[in-house]
Design goal:
Blueprint lengths: L3 E3 L19 H4 L2 H13 L10 E3 L36 E3 L5 E4 L10 E7 L5 E7 L9 E2 L1 H16 L7 H10 L1 E8 L4 E6 L8 E8 L7 E6 L1 H5 L3
Parallel strand pairs: 1-5, 2-11, 6-8
Antiparallel strand pairs: 3-4, 4-7, 5-6, 8-9, 9-10, 10-11
Length: 236
């Protein structure tokens, strides 16, 4: 498959982008990963509404993490965050782990699944790659799907997609493309959830700045959740 080339937009921040609570959210909706999310919805969820903005998920009491996966396995430790502190629709299997952002804690993991995927390329001289993955989150192969595991899985899929068996000349391009994956969108319609991950930047670390809750075929709604600014920088 040839990767689709996405033209570099003239501006990164749409004017007037607001979340459902009326707060401007260009720091989220202006990111390439957000545009990738919108593209993915159009390709794999035709008829589902595009999220108009984001609900913010703030860390209560200045904590740097909450709802993190328990140490003793799935379901071992209940959340200690009151429901009133969470926006409507946010909750398990999603969690927030400090600066790493959102993640999913799944009841099981499965290897060998082949989800659908679409690869996009931004830029000319030093292109960056993005990929939309549509399928069960368990295909990542881990019960905890966080930014690092999702980006690692996305790079694996990118290499496999661009590598041509029997054509040794395709190997360098596939390797470079896999390493250049900077934006990943996972859409699990069966579970009604999704994650948006970013990799690279100044720190080089991967993080998931957006969690997605997908409605059923009847309402076809998409809700997006972003970390409140104070949640990202808090270390208390």
């Amino acid at each position: 498959m040839d990767a689709a080339r996405e033209p570099r937009p003239g501006t990164d921040s749409p004017v007037g982008a607001r979340g459902p609570d009326g707060v401007f959210a260009p720091d989220v909706t202006g990111r390439p990963v957000w545009r990738l999310l919108v593209r993915g919805i159009g390709v794999y969820l035709p008829g589902w509404s595009e999220p108009p903005g984001t609900f913010t998920v703030a860390v209560p009491n200045g904590r740097s993490a909450f709802g993190a996966p328990p140490q003793d396995g799935f379901g071992g430790v209940p959340w200690d965050v009151p429901e009133t502190a969470l926006p409507p629709g946010f909750g398990p299997p999603a969690f927030v782990a400090g600066e790493a952002g959102f993640g999913l804690h799944l009841p099981d993991r499965r290897k060998g699944l082949e989800p659908d995927r679409e690869i996009y390329v931004r830029g000319q001289e030093n292109p960056s790659f993005g990929i939309v993955i549509a399928g069960p989150a368990s295909a990542v192969g881990s019960r905890v799907v966080d930014a690092e595991s999702l980006v690692r899985f996305a790079r694996k899929l990118t290499f496999e997609e661009l590598f041509e068996p029997g054509d040794a000349s395709s190997v360098p391009y596939a390797v470079r493309a896999a390493r250049a994956v900077q934006n990943v969108v996972l859409l699990d319609r069966g579970a009604g959830v999704g994650l948006c991950a970013e990799a690279g930047g100044e720190s080089g670390a991967a993080r998931c700045p957006v969690f997605v809750r997908l409605g059923g075929p009847a309402d076809r709604t998409v809700r997006a959740y972003a970390l409140a600014p104070q949640a990202v920088s808090s270390h208390s």
